Amino acid sequence: QQPVQSPQAVILREGEDAVINCSSSKALYSVHWYRQKHGEAPVFLMILLKGGEQKGHEKISASFNEKKQQSSLYLTASQLSYSGTYFCGSYSGGYQKVTFGTGTKLQVIP
Amino acid sequence: DGGITQSPKYLFRKEGQNVTLSCEQNLNHDAMYWYRQDPGQGLRLIYYSQIVNDFQKGDIAEGYSVSREKKESFPLTVTSAQKNPTAFYLCASSPGPPYNEQFFGPGTRLTVL
Q1: For A101, which of B42, B100, B104 is closest by C-beta distance?
Q2: What whole-number distance in Å separates Cα of residue B14 and Cα of residue A40?
Q3: Contact B42 A49 (CB under 8 A)
Q4: Contact of B20 with B76, CB cutoff 8 Å
Q5: Among A4, A44, A42, A20, which Cα is nearest to A107's?
Q6: Using CA atoms, how far apart are residues A26 and B103, in angstroms rounded to an integer?
Q7: N or C end of chain B: which has fewer CB within 10 A?
Q8: Phi/psi zone of residue A107: left (φ > 0), alpha (ψ -120 to 50 degrees), beta?
Q9: Under 8 Å CB-to-CB from B78, ≥6 apart: which residues?
Q10: What share of chain A is helix, strand, coil (3-state, %, to 5)?
Q11: Are A80 and A110 in contact (CB under 8 A)?
């Protein structure tokens, strides 16, 4: 029941845009997004809750389709610092755990 | 400065030895988690604890043990029963609902020789 992310990997040139998708088979209370740079710990980016509430990064946007249990992360005007592996996390609410997705490796080149 | 600390950063052990990884947080979070990450892979949950003196098995708990005697501390023991313990281990804490965002420590890279 691990969320499935697509694409698995993407290479961008600086300034280009990218979309990362996350699909879950379980009913979700919220979707989390994290970025992990090589050899480092994941860093929280944002959370999208049912009903449209969001909490997180100012320069990154995302959407959450509650009916389809899908979320998309939008990276616009990419910078070299955006490189890393992006994970979505599905959270069913209350004291449940967060289940992380398969990951999307993003590389931004000059 | 609030945060999560893990020690050591790198750990080498001989096969058959138990080893304990440290995780401390001063964020006053109730929930704490241990994840394992293998090269090029995602995060797999080992154990988690929502409150002191209570913890639950995650998806890959076999060969691991934990304790939660203090709110700030959640040590993980990798036992000799864990068949392939070499991995990157991440500890996280969370304030709980409604957002339950995870704050991660810097990780411990364990190599079993």
Answers
A1: B42
A2: 25
A3: no
A4: yes
A5: A20
A6: 23
A7: N
A8: beta
A9: B18, B19, B20, B21, B63, B64, B85, B89, B110
A10: 5, 55, 45
A11: yes
Q: Tokens representing B54?
A: 């209570």
Judge residue A39's burial from the number of C-beta atoms within 10 Å of its C-beta, 0-12 exposed, 13-18 middle, 19 or more buried: exposed
The answer to whether B60 touches B46, Cβ cutoff 8 Å, is yes
Rounded Cα distance between A86 and A83, Å, is 9
pLDDT of B1 reads 63
How far is residue B73's CA from residue B29's CA, in Å, rounded to a whole number? 11
> HSE of B62 in the Cβ direction (CA atoms, 13 Å)?
4
For residues B58 and B56, give the distance between their C-alpha atoms in angstroms, rounded to a whole number: 6
Residue B57's H or E segment, with its range, is strand B54-57
Task: Name the residue type at position B80.
Answer: S
The percentage of chain B sitting over the pLDDT mark of 70, rounded to a whole number, equals 98
Tell me if residue B112 falls in helix, strand or coil: strand
Interface test with chain B among A1, A4, A20, A44, by most B beta carbons within 10 Å: A44
In tens, the pLDDT along A16-32 reads: 999 999 998 877 788 99
